[in-house]
Structures are given as structure tokens and as C-alpha cells.
Amino acid sequence: MNLNRFEQLAWAFGADLGRWPPAEREAALHLAASAPASAEALLAQAARLDRILNVTAPLPVPSRALRERIILAAPSARAFSLAWRWLAGAAIGATMAAACAAGLATGATVGAPALASVRLAVNADAGDEALRLLRDPPDLTEG
């Protein structure tokens, strides 16, 4: 480890080496022993930043009144859950309807020529009628 890496770690994790990544601590201790003045100066700067950020201070406990106001302002879990269930059901229904419509449209447009080719394969001896069906397939959309 060099002083640049030591400085990066000090700014990232603070002056307490116990918060540094375990893999870096041993090398940091060796560097602090070999260059104590530089390491102490860097750790002093990091300690000032820690005090400014108040990293070691315990988090304030909210008052009971604040907790109750937050809980009362939150939406109920049941209403939220019902809305999501309804939306999920509607999305599934719409997806299934779209898939059915696509299947019907595909069957209507692709099915007629495919059916004519199956008839030709079954009735190989149909002759001129089979050739006429291939050249001019019947219009199945008329009632």
C-alpha cells in the first residue's frame, strides 16, 4: 500500500481503521508504522471529516407523536394490496384477450392456404383442380 491508497481509504472509510475493509487493514497498519507522520496527518484530516459528518453519533430517536403522524399518513396495506391485485388481474386478462385475437387473425389469414396445400397432399391425383387451387386459392371470407 502507498500513501495515495491510504489517503483514498481514509476519505472513504474514515479515521477508524476498524471500519476499513479487512483486506486493507493489515497493509494500512504497516504503512502507518513505516510512515507515522504522513499516516497520522491523513487520519487527522479524516477524523475532522468524521466529526463534521458525525458518523459515530447515534441516530436520533423520533418522538412518539412523529411516529404516530407518519403511521396515520401512510396508506393502508390492504388498499394498496387490492389495487395491485386488480391491476395484475386486468393485465393478465388483457394479455390473454390479445393473444386470442392474434391467434384468430393468424388462423384466418394463414389457415386457408395451408388447408389447400394439405388437401393437395392428400389428393395427389386431383390433377387440374389442384393446380387451379394453387394458382387461385378460394376466397373464404365470403359467406
Describe the SSE topology.
Blueprint: H1 3-13, H2 22-34, H3 36-53, H4 64-73, H5 77-122, H6 128-135
Gross morphology: elongated
Radius of gyration: 38 Å
Helical stretch tally: 6
Q: Give a count of the beta strands, DSSP E runs of length 2 or more.
A: 0
Uncertain runs are none
H/E element sequence: HHHHHH
Mean pLDDT reading: 80
Rounded to the nearest angstrom, the distance between the terminal CA atoms is 86 Å
Class based on secondary structure composition and strand pairing = mainly alpha
- What summary fits the major beta sheet? none
Q: How large a portion of the residues is in β-strands, by DSSP E? A: under 5%
Helix content: over 70%
Q: Would you kindly provide a written description of the structure presented here, covering whatever features stand out?
A:
The protein is mostly helical and 143 residues long. 74% of the residues lie in helices and 0% in strands. The chain starts with a helix and ends in an 8-residue tail after the last helix. The chain is elongated and about 105 Å long. It folds into 2 domains: 51 residues; 57 residues. The protein has 6 helices and no strands. The longest helix is centred in the last third of the chain and has 46 residues. α1 runs parallel beside α3 and α2 packs across α3. The model has no long low-confidence stretch (mean pLDDT 80).
List keywords for this structure.
143 residues; mainly alpha; 2 domains; 0% strand
Brief summary of the model shown:
This protein is mainly α. The chain has 6 helices and no strands.
